[in-house]
Amino acid sequence: MTHPAHRFSIAPMMDWTDRHCRVFHRQLTTRALLYTEMVTADAVIHGDRARLLGYSEVEHPIALQLGGSDPAKLAEAARIGAELGYDEINLNVGCPSDRVQEGRFGACLMSEPELVAACVAAMRAHQPVPVTVKCRIGIDDQDAEEDLRRFIDVVADAGCTRFVVHARKAWLKGLSPKENREVPPLDYERVYRLKAARPDLEIVINGGIETIEEARAHLDHVDGVMLGRAAYQNPAILADVDRLIFDADTESPTRAAALEAMLPYIEQHLKRGGRLSNVTRHVLGLYHGQPRGKTFRRHLSEGATSADATADVLREAIAIVERRADEARDSSRAA
């Protein structure tokens, strides 16, 4: 049975889905599963855990995504994540960057399903939190449908019951990470067939999904949908997730309400010595395509960067765009 939160999740994205981003996204959807940026097992074990793994209670349900290929290290990192209260531990077997390949983790691990299975087994053995895997539909010349099925079967035998599948193959040689998100063609049907072949597993689809309407259509074939760049670049679409994906009997939050809910969080962040831009860089796309949206973005981009910028910069940005929106509505009613 699919855990309710897995019907919709927001993808782990390096340099994007940090703790400030996740708190902002939580103002728009209370139900979606949120993911951290990928953190290597070594960083979890030896790094600054407060900085790398800290999160706010409002972020639940939240998953920690780990990178690595050493079963013992991953087991220790998973144990630490579970002790810190994460709701899920996810192993990255999908990132195609050169830096990740040099560390022998990410998408290159799809060629070593037995190693991934050993990692999953070790991670599951040392803590009680579910362990999941995020992968691609294939890599390089390992692109036959049976290759994906074999990978899933081997890793599932180690106890993984939930897979997030990016519906593009990854070219580990010849394409940049950005190109790997755009050039290889999407093959949603392959993911659908995987689910049909393994109905006992939870299959979450990822890749190229732009709207909540598209997400709902995918749910006719798989257990869950993961949104990536669309959720970050046009976050207002998340406001309909609880109502349209989870059938919640609630009104979708307005853009202004989501921003105003962030103000106490921002004030606390500033008191701890943080900068306003640490948070506001994640809200720049909220008025994408809306009247005065560019003015909103420009006001924040220019006003939030100084070291002494306060939450008033965001208050001013809200007033600018919402006042104009009010004027447009008044004009329309008058006409």
Q: How would you explain this protein's 3D organization?
A:
The structure is a single chain. The protein has 335 residues and is α/β, with parallel strands linked by helices. The chain has two domains: 241 residues, Alpha-Beta Barrel (TIM Barrel); 80 residues, Four Helix Bundle (Hemerythrin (Met), subunit A), CATH 1.20.120. The chain has 16 helices and nine strands. An eight-stranded parallel beta barrel has the order 1-2-4-5-6-7-8-9, surrounded by six helices. Helix 6 packs parallel to helix 7 and helix 13 runs antiparallel to helix 16. The protein is globular, with a radius of gyration of 21 Å. The C terminus is likely disordered. Keywords: Flavoprotein, FMN, NADP, Nucleotide-binding, Oxidoreductase, RNA-binding, tRNA processing, tRNA-binding. GO terms for molecular function: flavin adenine dinucleotide binding; FMN binding; tRNA binding; tRNA-dihydrouridine20 synthase activity; tRNA-dihydrouridine20a synthase activity. Its EC number is 1.3.1.91. Catalyzes the synthesis of 5,6-dihydrouridine (D), a modified base found in the D-loop of most tRNAs, via the reduction of the C5-C6 double bond in target uridines. Specifically modifies U20 and U20a in tRNAs. InterPro entries: Aldolase_TIM, DUS-like_FMN-bd, DUS_fam, DusA, tRNA_hU_synthase_CS.
